[in-house]
Design goal:
Elements (H helix, E strand, L loop, with lengths): L4 E5 L2 H19 L31 H13 L3 H12 L22 H17 L4 H24 L22 E3 H20 L3 H21 L20 E3 L8 E4 L2 E4 L26 H15 L3 H6 L19 H14 L3 H15 L23 H5 L26 H15 L1 E2 L6 E3 L9 E10 L5 E11 L4 E22 L12 E4 L4 E18 L2
Parallel strand pairs: 7-10
Antiparallel strand pairs: 1-8, 2-3, 4-5, 6-7, 8-9, 9-10, 10-12, 11-12
Helix pairs in contact: 1-11, 1-13, 2-3, 2-4, 2-13, 3-4, 4-5, 4-6, 5-6, 5-7, 6-7, 10-11, 10-13
């Protein structure tokens, strides 16, 4: 297959970003073992190579691997994704579901988001492999025990039909109790939807009905139990109308303060309360208009208010996973995927151009560490994301990878940052895929929704796959270019096969967009931007010129 490429022009960060995308994508691919050594074929390493300090090369963390398979599938690596999926299906290591790691046995029985992301990865693997019915039926059969486990847990929860969690994504990874948390439960909701689509396509009607019923039960539980103000027993610190972090299953109350290795810290304003970013794992590159859409946007504004309290966010576009309140001697403030990646994705699908313009600069600043004269931690590639960062060191011009060996943040655990940590780099690759914006969530329609910051002039996406409703895969090559001084924009697409029904969104433009000759433009107005839709385009080549005069 042809390797996807992204190219950007504009400011210096735009010029860097294409290389960041490519180098991190290459690193992800290298983590899928070919089986010629001591690991089985399809084993997905969490770290790139064995190295000093914190390293997970000999582990395959379920949430990391799930996200890795999703991104490989999204970008067309059908064989690699299939190898990894087959490994996982052969290693359901807790009898009927996966643990925190997908190899060997660990003591975590409720790594719910890991299970959800693996299921989403399996769905996306089926999709990029042409929606083969035989493959889909095999996947449905072999994932059925995981669905059985989830249904039992939903039925056994005394506080409502939610799934219990013991995870970093819930705030209680090492606790003896469980939390019904929003991010893992919302991820599982979408996994059920993806598998339901697979079952319907493969004509497995009874399985589709069961998955649909479970999806509806979980959707209602989320809407009534995890929206702040809706559940009278779980009133906490989150503003009404937003997603709460979760419910403490010991007493049914709001789980607002994490207990993590002896540290207690607030989790009522952290990036895990932005679960709508998972919708893009089903191909939807904006926020769905359903009964939860207002909750998603309320949650985004709630988290953004906390981000704006941090000087590093205001100055550099750096994100704190915990809203700058910190978590003692742990590292969650500075995680590249769960912090920077989540917030960047949320701003992008919310079309908050002002914020994602800042956040993409933050991604570039964190990724590139090639001018550090004396490294504090293991160094492999100056473009590849680390697990963690030290923002203070960046400001001083020092090595901004994580660690306290020399000049890091006092009182923080000695963690060298694990360059190439799988889930952290894949969340950044996902954010950059949102820049390309290949949306196939509407049956029979391709939506192209490229997103650029205000100061970037163009994006070129090469060899990006589009999966039609029947499973046919088409390769797309397209460029969006703004000539802002002339108030003109150009869009050019070449496809490997004819595109029959394509909506193209061009932007961003100022919120107050005045055009003297509207032609056939359809204008969509957002809070701080406007966008122009070109509807129902067809052909192997599409060329458009937008004149804003």
């Amino acid at each position: 297959m042809n390797i996807p490429v992204l190219r950007f022009t504009g400011d210096s960060y735009a010029e860097m970003m294409g290389t960041i995308f490519t180098e991190n994508l290459h690193d992800i691919i290298a983590k899928v073992d070919d089986g010629t050594g001591s690991y089985e074929k399809g084993y997905f390493h969490t770290s790139t190579v064995p190295h000093e300090g914190t390293c997970y090369y000999d582990s395959s963390w379920s949430r990391d691997v799930g996200r890795g398979i999703i991104e490989l599938s999204r970008l067309g690596f059908s064989a690699k994704a299939k190898d990894a999926a087959e490994y996982l299906l052969a290693h359901i290591n807790h009898g009927d579901h996966w643990g925190r790691t997908a190899d060997g046995i660990d003591n975590c029985l409720y790594e719910t988001n890991g299970n959800a992301l693996i299921l989403l990865g399996i769905y996306n693997t089926w999709k990029i492999n042409g929606k083969e019915k035989e493959l889909g039926r095999s996947y449905l059969s072999r994932t059925a025990p995981v669905i059985d486990w989830a249904e039992r847990e939903m039925e056994g929860n005394p506080h409502g039909s939610l799934l219990p969690c013991q995870s970093e994504m819930a705030g209680n990874p090492n606790s003896p109790y469980t939390v019904s948390a929003i991010y893992p439960n919302y991820a599982f909701l979408l996994a059920l939807e993806g598998l339901q689509q697979m079952a319907e396509f493969c004509e497995e009607k009874e399985t589709a009905r069961r998955l649909s019923a479970l999806h509806e039960k979980l959707f209602q539980a989320l809407s009534h139990l995890l929206v702040s103000g809706k559940n009278p027993k779980a009133i906490g610190n989150t503003p009404f109308g937003c997603w709460m972090n979760g419910i403490d299953n010991r007493d049914g109350r709001a789980y607002d303060f994490s207990e993590w290795d002896g540290t207690v810290w607030p989790v009522f304003h952290w990036t895990r309360q932005l679960p709508f970013i998972l919708q893009s794992d089903l191909g939807c590159f904006d926020i769905r208009k359903d009964s939860q859409s207002d909750v998603h946007q309320n949650s985004y504004r709630h988290i953004l208010r906390y981000m704006n309290q941090g000087e590093y966010f205001r100055k550099y576009g750096f994100v704190s996973g915990s809203g700058w309140t910190g978590m003692g001697d742990r590292h969650d403030d500075t995680m590249c995927g769960y912090s920077q990646g989540f917030m960047t994705q949320a701003a992008m699908v919310s079309d908050d151009v002002n914020t994602y313009s800042r956040l993409l600069k933050g991604v570039a600043r964190l990724a590139y560490d090639g001018e550090v004269a004396e490294a504090l931690t293991y160094e492999m590639n100056p473009w590849v994301m680390h697990e963690c960062f030290t923002y203070e060191n960046f400001e001083k011009g020092l090595d901004h990878t994580f660690g306290t060996q020399k000049l890091g943040r006092p009182g923080v655990s000695d963690n060298p940052g694990d360059e190439g940590n799988l889930v952290q780099e894949t969340e950044i690759v996902k954010a950059l895929s949102l820049c390309a914006g290949v949306d196939d969530s509407i049956p029979g329609k391709l939506r192209l929704m490229p997103r650029l910051p205000w100061t970037w002039n163009s994006i070129t996406a090469e060899h990006f796959p589009y999966v039609e409703q029947n499973g046919n895969v088409i390769e797309l090559n397209f460029t969006l270019r703004h000539d802002r001084p002339a108030r003109k924009s150009y869009f050019d697409l070449t496809a490997s096969q004819e595109i029959k029904n394509c909506d193209i969104r061009i932007g961003p433009f100022p919120a107050m967009l005045q055009i003297f000759d509207r032609q056939d433009y359809e204008i969509e107005q957002k809070e701080n931007s406007s966008w122009i839709w070109l509807r129902n385009r067809s052909g192997k080549e599409i060329h458009e010129e937008i004149d804003l005069w």
